[in-house]
Write a structure and sequence with these properties.
By secondary structure, the chain is of the alpha/beta class. The protein has eleven helices and 15 strands.
Length: 377
């Protein structure tokens, strides 16, 4: 048994609200199972508006025998146990749910194909997928999306200045492959918990939905979790480029632990109490070691996108629990050449006035769960 006082106690764990508003139609629960925490958001409709009914967060570290905030590798049974706990403690009564699929458990590829009619394209894509997927296609679930053309790209019918001829028209296709084992695990979880599975979605797509406004400009989503930092460029609300950095907030904790020669739990407390606003200069310098690597990778993505698409990224939106690090926003603003803002996903729905400031602060952590629930409501 897990000591729930360690899981729910403290400001960084469960946000227990009870039923805020009684929706007119069936509620939907967005479930985001991360490496260090589970986040859930329950939405409903009231007077034709999307309203927040409930939300909660549960640390997963204690279920693996490690500290709060640390990444945990859990069996399906342990994940089920954690889900039962958070549904009970947060008073979640609905059964209609949607689950996010971690971007790291998928294979995303942007491929270029000849411009043919949709029926032909649907026949071509599964065959082309074999070139981009390092395992048999029979072992994955495939999905794809044909991207609309960008006016300022060089793809499709442009004149080749050297030869004076038009290039063959092409289309960009976003190809997603998810291991069947992963899909089976989530299907089994929904069945074991007596939930009605409404949808699955790769987490970064949910974050884009809740953290951006289908901007007509290119926006970079920086989603910082415990073990990884996911980057995605959304242009006109469509994913155009993605990248995973195998470093996240847990690496900040580990760096503090090593530099100050203290245990991980104490390092985690230092990180959470003040972060980059700490008075301990050695702790700050330790935190900057992984952060500088992340900044470098982000800047590479910004440069690569401009080079490939001839379009600049106009802003960076921060999401994920890792961006709650004290002082990180100011650090990011100084580190990047484009404007930086913190994602505010709860601003897209109706919430109680007395909770708006709290939800604004907590918003980055719930970007995936909220974006997922919005999709299926």
């Amino acid at each position: 048994m897990v000591d729930l006082s360690k899981v729910f106690g403290g400001k960084f764990n469960i946000k227990k609200l009870g039923q805020l508003i009684s929706g007119e139609k069936g509620s939907v629960i967005g479930v985001d199972i991360g490496t260090s925490a589970i986040k859930i958001v329950q939405l409903g409709r009231h007077e034709n508006k999307i309203v927040l009914e409930n939300y909660g967060e549960l640390a997963l570290g204690p279920y693996a025998g490690v500290g709060v905030g640390q990444a945990a590798v859990l069996s399906k049974q342990k994940i089920k146990e954690a889900l039962v706990d958070i549904f009970r403690e947060a008073n979640i009564e609905g059964t209609s749910a949607a689950f996010s699929i971690p971007m790291g458990a998928t294979m995303l590829s942007l491929i270029e194909l000849p411009k043919v009619d949709r029926k032909q394209l649907n026949a071509i894509i599964p065959m082309e997928a074999r070139k981009y997927i390092p395992i048999p296609v029979s072992e994955v679930t495939l999905d794809w999306y044909i991207l609309p053309p960008q006016e300022d790209t060089t793809v499709g019918g442009k004149v080749d200045e050297k030869e004076g001829e038009k290039k063959p028209e092409k289309v960009d296709v976003l190809l997603a492959a998810i291991h069947n084992e992963t899909m089976n695990k989530y299907n089994e979880l929904t069945s074991d918990l007596n939930l009605v599975n409404r949808d699955f979605e790769i987490d970064i797509f949910s974050a884009i939905r809740s953290a951006t406004s289908n901007d007509s400009e290119a926006v970079l989503i920086m989603d910082m979790g415990a073990g990884t930092t996911k980057l995605a460029v959304s242009d006109f609300g469509i994913l155009r480029m993605q990248h995973i950095i195998n470093m996240g907030s847990q690496d900040v904790t580990i760096a503090i632990s090593k530099v100050l020669q203290i245990d991980v739990d104490e390092a985690e407390n230092i990180k959470r109490e003040r972060g980059l606003l700490s008075e301990d200069e050695r702790a700050i310098e330790a935190m900057k070691i992984p952060l500088e690597h992340i900044v470098s990778e982000v800047n590479k993505v910004i440069a690569n996108y401009r080079k490939k698409h001839a379009r600049p990224i106009t802003k960076i939106v921060l999401t994920g629990g890792g961006v709650m690090l004290g002082g990180l926003v100011d650090y990011a603003k100084k580190s990047f050449s484009v404007p930086v803002e913190v994602g505010d996903p709860f601003s897209r729905i109706e919430t109680p006035a007395f909770l708006q400031e709290t939800l604004k602060r907590a918003g980055p952590e719930f970007a995936v769960a909220l974006g997922l629930a919005i999709k299926v409501l």
